[in-house]
Description:
60% helix; mainly alpha; single chain; elongated
Amino acid sequence: HYIEHPRPIEPPAEAAPPPPQPLKLTKKEQKKLRTQRRLAKEKDKQEMIRQGLLEPPKAKVKMSNLMKVLGSEATQDPTKLEKEIRTAAAEREQAHTDRNAARKLTPAEKREKKER
């Protein structure tokens, strides 16, 4: 504890230049970039599913595609399957409305947005 260590000092250097301003994109270019980003994201998701890192989403069975998706199971007990399909569809719709409600602006936020 008798040795005194000086604090390390940053060597003098020039301040870093500010980053260049991004180019303003046209509407068409913005749309193209958004499409490319979404396609790349979807491809990544499909690749993860193929590798087994993500579980594939369960089939959205509807009344119209009941026979195509379930096949022989649908002929054994159609009433039970119809009930399951209706409940699954109701759950999907409820999840959709819940997501929308969560995203909805509060009256104060609406007022603030209108003022902006």
